[in-house]
Amino acid sequence: MRRKMFGIIAILVMLSVVLSACSGSKSQPNTETKPQPAKEAVFYGGWPYTLPPKSNFNWYSSSSLAMGGSPYNEMMMNPLAMYYWDSNKWEPMLATEWTQDAATSTVTVKLRKGVKWSDGTDFKAQDLINTMIINKAEAYSVWRYVDKLSATDDYTLVYHLGNPSTVALRYVLKTQPLATSVFGEYAKKIQALFDAGKDAKADEVKAVLKEMEAVQPKEFVVSGPYNIDVSNITEAQMTLKKVPTAWQAATVKFDKIVLYNGETAQVTPLILDKKVDFATHAFPPATEKQFLAQNIRIIRYPNYSGPSLFFNMDVYPLNRKEVRQAIAYAINRDENGTVALSKSGVGVKYMTGFSDNMVKLWMSDSDVKKLNTYDYNPAKGEEALKSIGFTKGADGIWVDDKGKQLSFEVSVPSDYSDWSASAENAVQQLNKFGIKTVMRGVPSSQQPADIRAGKFQIGYRSYGSSIPHPSFAFTADLLTYNQLQVANTKDQPGINFPLKQKYSGGEIDFNDLITKSGAGMDAAKQKEIIGQVAVAFNELLPIVPLFERYFNSPALENLHVSGWPQDGDPILKNGGSDNFVTIMVLTGKLSPAK
């Protein structure tokens, strides 16, 4: 019986093996899929930079890789807040709240807690105090309004306004704090000198700044969610990698940002090859047509500035307003802008020194009516020259009252394709008018230094400002390249335009009124001063603005990036400052394409 049972069991086991084989269970491969690593989300942009060691990772150095003016600068080093131009509201960044008290002339700022620098140190009020001390030594404009700064605790700062102003808040909130771990020792030295009665002009203070600017950190210490990958910089491109410990690390949607190196000529083929998602370079009309032919979208938004003719007042007769007025009449500015940037080059109308978009916001109707729009009219230009005794020679060239032909050289950054096209057109128009003119291209790395040093006759630099108050524009127009008049800096005469002038409205001190135009908390009073400065500027024309640049930025939709704002979106009122791409990346509104 027991043997019979064993036989039955053996048969059942054999059947089980056979059935198992028939089912194919032993021959089936393991179909379980291993989890694949997530695809990196990459934003591709472009910006011109200089490869180390000619550049460095010292945020204050003139050779810094900080990419000032780019959309990427504030992605690395956050400001306290960023501004929405359309709604007059702020996006909190390193500050979470702020209040202004007119009675005490103070601005109180609450800082964000829990923020860590990329080197692991904590972000606190002392970082901002140190930054402001260094900014004072560097004569930053914020100190035209702030006279004292103190911390009530590690996350609360109180700014006292010795010169109360509606623009002071912007200066405060747009400050980019720097890490104490890098710059603290220099701030301490500078403060000790200030406590000893020295000021920013003292040789001892300048020596500390020189020492600080010579420091060569191995990498930036940043507060934002991206930092340059120092091991991955080439002549062709560099990478901004996400900082995993950054306070915005969970908000931003891109793992890294790849920036191709180059100006317009270098970046254009990369866009056409659809390797770049977004670029702020100025693209000429022919290139725009290529983009549109490939269904590449162009986003237009104002820069609130553009190219202008800056005149060396030490070169006779450029110091005579009639000559500058004649030049304004002789150049068709609409044509000049179109040649340079097609629809994105809009000829300047009001000639106030700040954006036409802001004129009626900051000037009364009566002051606007006083403005000469200098519509293209060569005949009026001739009248202006004849009124001061100039004559036209038999060869068609104007001769001044000293018997010398009007002959000038125009200096322009050779690697700015839009400005070069504009300069070529302006030179053609001036020659046609009878002012002998030639264009000289100078690399953009050198040309501003030449202007500051007075080594030019007529030069292209920017007028206006992408900051929402005309005082900033007047500073760019009349002070930045005029240091002999502003600070008695003899080796930096710039345009050397005297800031105390007479015009049809009487006498004016531009330097004094530029400060007053942003002073106080009374916007109506500011408008009166701005109107006076604008009317005087319009008559004297210390510079001749040509066209206002609107960005014509290609934006590749749904290639690597999704969420681009539609035409008419209020955020497109943001100009070069508070760039809409910066805000949308930092707030997570731009995300990887699916």
Secondary-structure topology with pairs:
Blueprint: H1 2-23, E1 42-46, H2 73-76, E2 81-84, E3 89-92, E4 95-101, E5 106-111, H3 125-137, E6 146-153, E7 156-161, H4 168-173, H5 180-195, H6 203-213, E8 226-233, E9 237-242, E10 256-260, H7 264-272, H8 285-293, E11 297-302, E12 305-311, H9 321-330, H10 333-341, E13 345-347, H11 356-362, H12 365-369, H13 378-386, E14 391-392, E15 398-399, E16 407-413, H14 417-433, E17 436-442, H15 447-452, E18 458-464, H16 470-478, H17 483-487, E19 500-503, E20 506-509, H18 510-517, H19 523-540, E21 543-545, E22 547-555, E23 561-562, H20 580-586, E24 591-592
Parallel strand pairs: 1-10, 16-17, 16-18
Antiparallel strand pairs: 2-3, 4-5, 5-7, 6-7, 8-9, 9-10, 11-22, 12-18, 12-21, 13-22, 14-15, 19-20, 23-24
Helix pairs in contact: 3-5, 5-6, 9-13, 10-14, 16-18, 18-19
